[in-house]
Amino acid sequence: MYKLTFDLKEVGEYPSFKEAFIRLYLLVKESIKEGTSWQVLETMHWIEEPNNTRPLLFYEARDKAYQMGLLTDDGKLNIKKGE
Q1: CA atoms in the 13 A half-sphere facing the CB of 61
Q2: CB 3.0-4.6 Å disulfide test: which of 3, 43, 61, 79 passes with 48?
Q3: Is residue 81 classed exposed, middle or buried when 0-12, 13-18 and 19+ CB atoms within 10 A define those classes?
């Protein structure tokens, strides 16, 4: 399971990185609207992967999502409805 932490609070566990990242993405978008700082983005949000001792901080998770094709070049989610 992939564990998502947002604002230093555990949000939940997800069966795939994709599902955890989509939830993280939506939470971050809302947080940005509310005026969060870059430092908060860099230090208070992460995804813990199974069998990995170090969590993926926000920017690392974003980069992985981009490499997997979950994000477009302009930073939008690249998923279809129902996926």
Answers
A1: 30
A2: 3
A3: exposed
**Distance between start and end Cα atoms, the chain:** 19
Q: Where are the beta strands (DSSP E) in the chain?
A: 2-6, 9-14, 45-48, 56-57
Domain chopping of the chain, boundaries: 2-68
pLDDT tens across the length of the chain (83 residues): 999 999 999 999 999 999 999 999 999 999 989 888 888 888 899 999 998 889 999 999 999 999 999 999 888 999 875 55
